[in-house]
Target: Pyridoxal phosphate homeostasis protein
Amino acid sequence: MTVVDTMAGRLAQIQQRIADACARAGRPPESVTLLPVSKTFGIDAIREAMALGLTRFGENKTQEIRQKAAALAGEGLQWVLIGHLQTNKARDAARDATEVQSLDRVELAEALHRRLVNEGRSLDVLVQVKTSSEPSKYGMAPGDVPAFLRRIAADFPTLHVRGLMTLAVNSPDPDQVRACFRALRELRDRLRQDNLPGVSLDRLSMGMSGDFELAIEEGSTEVRIGTAVFGARAYPDPQ
Ligand SMILES: *Cc1c(COP(=O)(O)O)cnc(C)c1O
Model:
């Protein structure tokens, strides 16, 4: 593949690859949303992305959302938290995030709900599921998700579940990566049979720069792309 060294070029290339993966999977191209992941990149990079029409950004840390949202206030941007959220940061997330994709435990759901009640708002959430056995990855064990969703539906009405999120195993073997994405989709299909009030499971957030095409083939509705749009990160950011 040719090396593209402008954001506009990289974005166009990613959009083409998303469209191609959709075509291979027999899916309409608009069935997959691109979530650009701007973590570790500064305001200039986000302004460049805005000039290309991007308005919704994925971030890993509440402090970074706070700083960027303050610097770009009034621009109508949406901030999506995709990184691990400590319970003691629930207040910041409840205030500044448009959406949280890393909801992975009851304690966090409880803390977010309490803060959201204070803020008088509700929040779209995805439940992060651990589909690999890598110890470094966060996420709820698949077997715990059914009871978790019942608990949210019963007790935390400020949390609007929209779907599931996962990170696939870091592996050069596409079959292993694909198995993670497939596990998430199959879990979602089983959960749908519970028909919980207020819980919608239409969204599957899966796929990153290195594996989004496999994710699309396995039913992803949202790919979270950082480096392939913004370029290499100057410093690593834990997931
Ligand atoms: C950083 C990150 C991404 C994007 O990763 P790239 O490999 O840069 O595309 C996606 N999802 C999560 C949860 C991340 O932390």
User: Anything to note?
Assistant: The mean pLDDT is 95. The radius of gyration is 17 Å. The first helix runs from residue 7 to 24.
